């Protein structure tokens, strides 16, 4: 079934945070995230904010009181209405940097949608994504089913940009369609009544 948008709030672009999940030195993730953020910014339903976890000096040990970078990251999560996590696969899971960033927030994540851009070497990063779905269930997050994924070993990416134009673009459009549907629906729901966990 196709739908038409009737809500006036649907015309205000959705504040979408594209999160660079890897903070590893020499990481590939930054260029993939920059490509994806540029591609997503072409979508007039979105305003895109690139959130690079490497820029936040998050403490190695969780302190009793949040540090300034923790508060800044939490505020960034709070402002966003939708997220796209750009995640590598590390040992069949997702990187610790991403878990740390997720754990910094709590109700700032609640009742918002998350999409994924995933990659690995030999794998496509999908095992990282499936683990993240479990984690986000604890945070009342809707994770969208379709994933934009890459295997770095097969040469599809060059300098973080896909070479296979149309195939990747179909995957991006599908994921963004699901993400924006949920983000618009949840924006309206949040406006109608507060989310009570
Ligand atoms: C600690 C570590 C574990 C990895 N484990 C996997 C893995 O299980 N599956 C996979 O497909 N690639 C794996 N890789 C390859 C990474 O996906 C690849 O190096 C990628 O570039 C990492 O993302 P990044 O460069 O943005 O940090 C691993 C890489 C590292 C550093």
Automatic annotation (TrEMBL):
Q: Where are the transmembrane segments?
A: none
Q: One Pfam family, short name please?
A: FMN_red
Q: Which GO terms describe its cellular component?
A: cytosol
Q: Where is the NADPH-dependent FMN reductase-like domain?
A: 15-151
Output one GO MF annotation. Answer: oxidoreductase activity
Instruction: Please give the InterPro entries that the UniProt record associates with this protein.
Output: Flavoprotein-like_sf, FMN_Rdtase-like_dom, NAD(P)H-dep_reductase
> Which SUPFAM superfamilies is this protein grouped with?
Flavoproteins (SSF52218)
Name of this protein: NAD(P)H-dependent oxidoreductase
Which species is this record about?
Phytoactinopolyspora alkaliphila
Q: What is the lineage of its organism?
A: Bacteria, Bacillati, Actinomycetota, Actinomycetes, Jiangellales
């Amino acid at each position: 079934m196709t739908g038409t948008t009737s809500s006036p709030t649907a015309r205000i672009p959705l504040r979408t945070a594209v999160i660079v999940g890897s903070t590893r030195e020499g990481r590939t993730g930054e260029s993939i995230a920059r490509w994806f953020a540029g591609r997503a910014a072409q979508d007039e339903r979105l305003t895109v904010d690139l959130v690079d976890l490497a820029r936040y000096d998050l403490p190695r040990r969780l302190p009793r009181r949040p540090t300034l970078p923790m508060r800044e990251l939490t505020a960034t999560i709070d402002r966003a209405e939708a997220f796209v996590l750009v995640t590598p696969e590390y040992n069949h899971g997702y990187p610790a940097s991403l878990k740390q960033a997720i754990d910094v927030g709590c109700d700032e994540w609640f009742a918002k949608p998350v999409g994924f851009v995933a990659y690995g070497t030999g794998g496509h990063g999908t095992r990282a994504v499936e683990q993240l779905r479990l984690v986000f269930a604890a945070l009342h997050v809707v994770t969208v089913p379709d994933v934009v994924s890459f295997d770095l070993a097969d040469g599809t990416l060059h300098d973080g940009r896909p070479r296979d134009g149309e195939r990747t673009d179909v995957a991006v459009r599908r994921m963004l369609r699901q993400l924006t549907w949920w983000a618009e629906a949840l924006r309206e729901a949040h406006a109608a009544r507060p989310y009570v966990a």
